[in-house]
Amino acid sequence: MFELNDDHRHTLLVIARQSIASVFEGQAREWRAEDFVEVLLQPAGAFVTLNTLDGDLRGCIGSIQAVHPLYRAVASSAIAAAFRDPRFPPLHPGELEQLHLEISVMGPVEVVTNVEEIVVGRDGLIMSQGRNAGLLLPQVASEYRWDLETFLNQTCLKAGLPRNAWRSKDCRIEKFSALVFGE
Q: Which end of the chain has fewer CB atoms at under 10 Å, N or C?
């Protein structure tokens, strides 16, 4: 798992906000690897969550796999959350200032063989069966005060599966931790 100090976290939040703002300015912000410290250059998956000041979700998209350097994963996830989350219309100019940004840096993904291994509030879940898959970040269960069974059921629903599909032998359950921080 990544260890990020306050400066690293601040830098990533600035990258997320400025990446979204650059779209409104009609230009893609170019981030240069040589401008960042080593920890931000490490490959990592990351999600960016956009919430209104009232706490309502306004967008959340990210990458599970550690394919790109962390700074780039945050930049692309921020833009995707702002403009490509199919649950919401794209952000419009002036709306960004009314949003709170949160970043989740993904830890390794592990297959769950016993649901009792899952710790609500620490673990995020990925549920998949056939062509359906869904993911809920660790903080979601805590925010809604879900117990383990509710968290499993809700992850199934997010995947487009029946509520209790997690009980089926052909349903794959994976867990992950995440380092979560926001503005």
A: N
18 and 47 belong to one structural domain: yes
Structure pTM?
0.90
The per-residue pLDDT for range 88-103, each reduced to its tens digit, is 999 998 999 999 999 9
Q: Tell me: do 70 and 55 sit in the same domain.
A: yes
Taking the alpha carbons at both ends of the chain, their separation in whole angstroms is 21
Q: In this structure, are residues 173 and 3 in contact, taking their beta carbons and an 8 Å threshold?
A: no
Count up the domains in the chain and report the number. 2
Is 81 exposed, middle or buried, given 0-12, 13-18 or 19+ CB atoms closer than 10 A?
buried
Total residue length of the chain: 183
Name the average pLDDT for the chain: 95
* Local structure of 151: helix, strand or coil: helix
Handedness of CA 78, 84, 90, 93 (dihedral sign): positive
Task: Specify whether 78 is located in the same domain as 118.
Answer: no
Helix axes 70-83, 6-24, angle to 10 degrees: 40
Closest CA to 63 of 8, 13, 6, 135: 135
